[in-house]
Amino acid sequence: MRSFVRLSPRLANNSLLRNTPSLAPGHILPGARWNYHILDSVKGDNTHLSTVFKAEVVPHNNVNNAPQWAIIKAASPENTIATENLARERATYRFSGVSSAACFRQMYDVIDNNTIAVEWLDTTLAEVEYQPNMRMYALITKFLNAALASCIVLDGHRHVNTDYKPANILLSGIDTERVTAKVGDLVFPVGERAHAQPLAMRAPEVFLGQACTGPSQVWAVAAMLLCWIQPGILGASDSPSSWINEAWCMAKIKRLFPDWGIPTPDKVDGHVLQAVVKSARRMSRDESSMQAILPFGEEMQKVDMPQQLKEVLHFILVVNPAERPSASSMLGSSELQAFEQFVGV
Questions:
Q1: Which residue of 98, 143, 323, 327 is most buried, as measured by CB atoms within 10 A?
Q2: 15-24: pLDDT as tens digits
Q3: Predicted structure pTM score
Q4: How far lies 142's CA from each of 65, 157, 260, in Å?
Q5: Residue 267 belongs to a domain
Q6: Residue-wise DSSP of 95-135
């Protein structure tokens, strides 16, 4: 697992503000498109390496149709990882079709190499609690279509989003009939191997050291939906020790999908991965808490959701990436169409 020293949010903010005093709350940040009145810091899910602020948009003279709010993302020059991630995000918005795609949060301004202004949306999927009702099912169709559409755009540039998670699905108007769903925080080239994807959303092949590719991000979209509906079914939130998190997650996948063959240690490279697969194989057989996890079809019987949605998840969550549907085939699938007809989209 990648290791790095990270400043506490308080120290990180202070360091950033010392380097760029215009980001202090109350200041006006000048942009090429608009100016931005810095308001409050945004906490998020505590995994962001950049510092994030909400800002009020201050239009230039004679500018109409400016939005009311924006997000300011800033990476401290002292934080190499945050700076590299922000550079990747800026570069991704320059790809053909990304800045104009409705599935992505809009980029408003590149203030400097370490600061950008992007679209504000009211909330995230992580802040919405799943409930089995038609309003939620309509919300699912919105963000599922947005996430899959984003996969298609990125596939065209041989890039993947390695950070699909509920906190990166941005939402507005969730209490209205005009819900907006967009994807935020972008991305890595196809072939990224450095423990890509959050643990709960990580594809089986990525756990085994393979590259994160188009099929891997499709798995992540479905896993994100599943984990939002049934928290803890994947991932390491209930792992007894952070030292075994990856093996714990792999054992869960094995319990849900018994046909997935976790290789023996002699079939993988590296001492760390060999130890992980050995532990995962043992946990899936012998760990008492794992025995409560049933095969996917049976596990879904415990969850209050329409059969059409269960079939969507079953269609996508295929452990063999070569057999997993692509994002485009998923968008055109009879399974998704049946769910949308059920919702009345």
A1: 143
A2: 444 445 468 8
A3: 0.89
A4: 25, 24, 30
A5: yes
A6: STTTTT-TTBPPEEEEEETTEEEEE--SEEGGGS---SSHH
